[in-house]
Design goal:
Elements lengths: L8 E7 L4 H10 L6 E8 L7 H6 L3 E4 L5 H14 L4 E4 L8 H7 L3 E5 L11 H7 L4 E8 L9 E8 L6 H25 L2
Parallel strand pairs: 1-2, 1-4, 2-3, 4-5
Antiparallel strand pairs: 5-6, 6-7
Helix pairs in contact: 1-6
Length: 193
């Protein structure tokens, strides 16, 4: 991937739901000194609330249902290559990209995960954290590899879990820190390329 030399990196953001991290990434990309330019929002859910943010900011959207993963990923790769996308940011994307997709894309894919990886990979992280009475939780931005939530960690932010916490309050707390963490991690990652 080319160095930054003042050029913004063409970026695609993948979402499945409310898109609050997408919204914070759009805010970030609109800043003058931002290293990214969001060219595409991809969703596996045509009803994803986050698609509103793409529409408001006049960013192209692409919906694919992943029913036939091979066909879906092939079409998606074609779209990404046509738009010269050099970075993918997964932001609450609830599908697992295949090893084949990751290999063929050949460029960095980042993900934000609501736990302090390597602890609590996969789903239902807040539930597990509360059940295990963890004192701390947080969020991690990492590189995507074929192994779930196992790629190189770029940046983490930690928060204290109060003893009165429930899944909802913890999710809200973590979401709040993610909105700053993801842009910070992207900046850190691209500077160190």
């Amino acid at each position: 991937m080319e160095k930054l030399n003042g050029k913004k990196i063409n970026t695609a953001v993948f979402i499945s739901g409310r898109g609050s991290n997408l919204r914070s990434l759009i805010k970030y990309y609109k800043k003058k000194n931002s290293p990214i330019s969001i060219k595409l929002v991809v969703s596996n859910n045509p009803k994803a609330e986050g698609l509103i943010y793409a529409k408001r900011s006049k960013i192209k959207k692409y919906i694919t249902n992943f029913k036939n993963i091979n066909v879906s990923e092939k079409k998606l790769l074609k779209k990404l290559f046509n738009l010269k996308i050099n970075l993918i940011c997964l932001a609450g994307f609830m599908k697992i990209l295949s090893r084949n997709f990751i290999k063929k894309f050949k460029k960095p894919i980042l993900n934000i995960h609501p736990s302090l990886l390597p602890k609590y990979k996969g789903l239902n992280t807040h539930k597990k954290i509360i059940k295990n009475k963890e004192k701390y939780s947080g969020s991690t931005v990492h590189l995507v590899t074929a192994k779930l939530d196992s790629g190189k960690i770029i940046l983490q932010k930690r928060i204290k879990v109060s003893k009165y916490e429930n899944e909802n309050t913890l999710e809200k707390k973590i979401l709040k820190i993610e909105h700053d963490l993801y842009p910070e991690a992207i900046k850190k990652f691209l500077i160190n390329l």
